[in-house]
């Protein structure tokens, strides 16, 4: 999947990304962009740290966290989720296609006897 985002477009997606408001496509575009753009990566990381890390630190004051690692894990998890969802979507459409094909063949064999000798 190729990212066509400019830095300006990527930066507009950062806050919605943090707020979990992006659809899969925009999310994938943003993650693709930050992989090759250090400036936007840093901006996303900074925004992430402000909005998320404080929450982690608030919830567990006794632990020390590596905020950068939390961010990297977060990005990795999101990328895995996107990959899983796109694989699931491919299987769904494949299943749909096979189901429709079977329906079509069943209908064809009913209306055209001898069309498919094995049905
Ligand atoms: Zn950029």
What level of helicity do the residues show? over 70%
Q: What is the string of helix and strand elements?
A: HHHH
What molecules are bound to this protein? zinc ion
Shape: elongated
Q: Give me the Rg, rounded.
A: 23 Å
State the major sheet: none
**How large is the count of helical segments?**
4
Keywords:
binds zinc ion, mainly alpha, elongated, 0% strand, 119 residues, 4 helices
Description:
The protein has four helices and no strands. By secondary structure, it is an all-alpha fold. The two termini are 41 Å apart. The model has no long low-confidence stretch (mean pLDDT 86). Zinc ion is lined by residues 7, 10, 33, 37, 39-40.
Summarize the structure.
With 119 residues, the protein is mainly α.
Please write out the topology.
Elements: H1 7-18, H2 24-36, H3 38-59, H4 67-111
The structure holds zinc ion.
């Amino acid at each position: 999947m190729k990212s066509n985002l400019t830095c300006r477009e990527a930066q507009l997606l950062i806050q919605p990304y943090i707020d979990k408001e992006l659809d899969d496509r925009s999310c994938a575009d943003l993650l693709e962009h930050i992989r090759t753009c250090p400036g936007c990566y840093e901006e996303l990381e900074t925004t992430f740290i402000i909005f998320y890390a404080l929450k982690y630190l608030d919830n567990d004051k006794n632990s020390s966290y590596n905020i950068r690692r939390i961010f990297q894990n977060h990005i990795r998890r999101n990328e895995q989720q996107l990959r899983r969802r796109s694989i699931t979507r491919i299987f769904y459409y494949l299943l749909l296609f096979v189901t429709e094909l079977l329906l079509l063949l069943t209908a064809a064999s009913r209306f055209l006897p001898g069309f498919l000798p094995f049905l």
